[in-house]
Design brief:
Length: 234
C-alpha cells in the first residue's frame, strides 16, 4: 500500500494544484520510485489511498503499473477527506492480504529494496509489524523509535531513530485489541498509526532495523528542490 492521501500543506503552493506524490523528482512523479521498487521486489498488487486531488493520481497511473495491478481507496471521494494513516489502512484492508508492505508516497528512498526474503522472515516471526528506521534528519532530531539488542522496536529508548514510513504489517494489528475501527472502516473514522504501534511495541510484537541508504521525507519545497539539484526560487 502506498499512502498518497495527504494535503501536503507545507508544500504549498506546489500542492494547491498537484497532489504531493505527483510532484516531479528527476522528471518523474515522486511516488513512482516506490511503485517501481515494489514491483521490482515481486509485488503484483498495489493499493493507493487518495484524498486531496486524488483523481489526478488514479488518472495518471491507471490500473496497471508494469507487472502490477493497481487498486485505489478513494478516501476523499468516499468521505470528503483523508482518514489519517491507521484509518486509511483499515479502509483499504479488503484490498490487502494478511501481510503487506506500506510506504508513504512522499518519501524518496531510491535504493531501498523490497525483498521477498524480508517478507518471509516477517511472516515466520509472528510479529505484527516490522519497521525500517533511518538516521534522524535535521527536521526530526529526536527520532521516533529505538531498537533493542534483540531487534525489537522500542517506544522509549535512550537512542531513537526516525520512522522511514517503510514497514511490513500483519492485518491483525488493525483489529482488536490494538484497533477498534470496524473492518473496512465503513464510517470513515480518522485514526493515526502511532498509538497502534506503541501498544503493539509494549507487547513485544514489533521489530525494527536501521536503514542507512539515501532517504528523504519530501516535506518542504526546499527538500524537493534539493532532490532535483536546484535552489528554490526566491
Amino acid at each position: 500500500m502506498i499512502l498518497a492521501a495527504g494535503r501536503g500543506e507545507r508544500m504549498r503552493p506546489l500542492t494547491d494544484t498537484t497532489p504531493k506524490p505527483l510532484l516531479q523528482v528527476n522528471g518523474r512523479p515522486l511516488m513512482q520510485a516506490a511503485m517501481q521498487s515494489l514491483v521490482a521486489g515481486g509485488v503484483r498488487q498495489l493499493v493507493i489511498n487518495t484524498a486531496w486531488l486524488g483523481d489526478q493520481i488514479s488518472s495518471h497511473f491507471g490500473h496497471q503499473h508494469r507487472a502490477a495491478i493497481v487498486a485505489y481507496s478513494h478516501e476523499g471521494r468516499d468521505f470528503g477527506g483523508a482518514l489519517e494513516t491507521a484509518g486509511g489502512i483499515v479502509r483499504a484492508l479488503p484490498l490487502l492480504g494478511d501481510v503487506f508492505w506500506v510506504v508513504a508516497g512522499d518519501i524518496y528512498a531510491p535504493g531501498f529494496v523490497f525483498r521477498e526474503a524480508a517478507v518471509e522472515r516477517f511472516v515466520a516471526s509472528g510479529r505484527l509489524a516490522h519497521l525500517w528506521l533511518v538516521p534522524n534528519p535535521p527536521h526530526n532530531p529526536g527520532g521516533d523509535f529505538g531498537i533493542s539488542p534483540e531487534g525489537l522496536a522500542l517506544s522509549d529508548a535512550p537512542v531513537k531513530y526516525t520512522f522511514s514510513t517503510i514497514a511490513l504489517y500483519r492485518a491483525a494489528l488493525f483489529a482488536p485489541p490494538y484497533c477498534e475501527i470496524p473492518p473496512g472502516n465503513p464510517s470513515g473514522i480518522k485514526a493515526p498509526l502511532a498509538p497502534l504501534l506503541r501498544a503493539a511495541m509494549a507487547d513485544g510484537a514489533v521489530s525494527a532495523e536501521l536503514y542507512t541508504g539515501a532517504w528523504t521525507d519530501v516535506g518542504t519545497p526546499e527538500r524537493l528542490a534539493e532532490l532535483n539539484g536546484k535552489k528554490r526560487p526566491a
